[in-house]
Amino acid sequence: MKEYYGYSADEFVKKAHFPVIVREDNQTIFKELAQIMFDTIKENNEKDDISVIVNPVGPVGQYPYFVEMVNENKLSLKKCWFINMDEYLDDNNEWIPSDSYLSFHGVMEKKLYSQIEPELNVPENQRVFPNPHKLDEIGNLLKKLGKLDLVVGGIGITGHVAFNEPQPDMSNEEFLNLPTRTLNITKETRATNSCNDLHGAMEEMPYRAITIGMKEMFTAKRIVLGCFRDWHRGVVRHAACGEPSASFPVSLLQLHKNMSLYISESVADYTLD
């Protein structure tokens, strides 16, 4: 057994190769992620600057808190560019329908955009998803905008961030240079996601996805991840204490200049002893 699976919560936080912030429960984590998004935009607004943020569907618990903060404080999102990490594809390499239960387009509309007061909302042309027919679009957009302020995300069972699934045959440098692309979802991810999102109906889970790459994500000034599920107990230890490797992609974020991980006490306290 890997030594890090036996770490106590205190040992884990101390030995992690990037900051690990332990919070009481999931809702506290979601509030903090929302606050980070809010503060990033507020600071840029005060400088009359744009905000460029890569957002996930998973976790999504931060969005209700973010919506509340935006509406109550009348924070304008007009100068924001919100880029989604990924999306499921059908067998023809098209986005799944937006009215599908699994559609990330649909989730963002329901959880975020439809809840923000119209006069504050992100302009529709600044709500961006990776496009399977324009793979260079996000990379070119980030170059045009000149920055990426923040990436918010989670970690999948295979160590994937967005849908950057493991590539054991690649060097770390090769994997970190992978841009936006379409790919097959691993059987492990399909199984886990079907349990999380479809109550185990794995035959309904897509086989394909599009994802932004590590190449784009590593340009971010700041990356924050939140983990809160029972199975994250082992995943976060591998992520923060294992050797950086394309075999477990999130571990490569140890190499980023400003990466932090927020976890609940229940995730931090677990060991395999």
Automatic annotation (TrEMBL):
Database matches in SUPFAM superfamilies: NagB/RpiA/CoA transferase-like
Instruction: Give the protein's recorded name.
Output: Glucosamine-6-phosphate isomerase
Its taxonomic path starts at: Bacteria, Bacillati, Bacillota, Bacilli, Lactobacillales
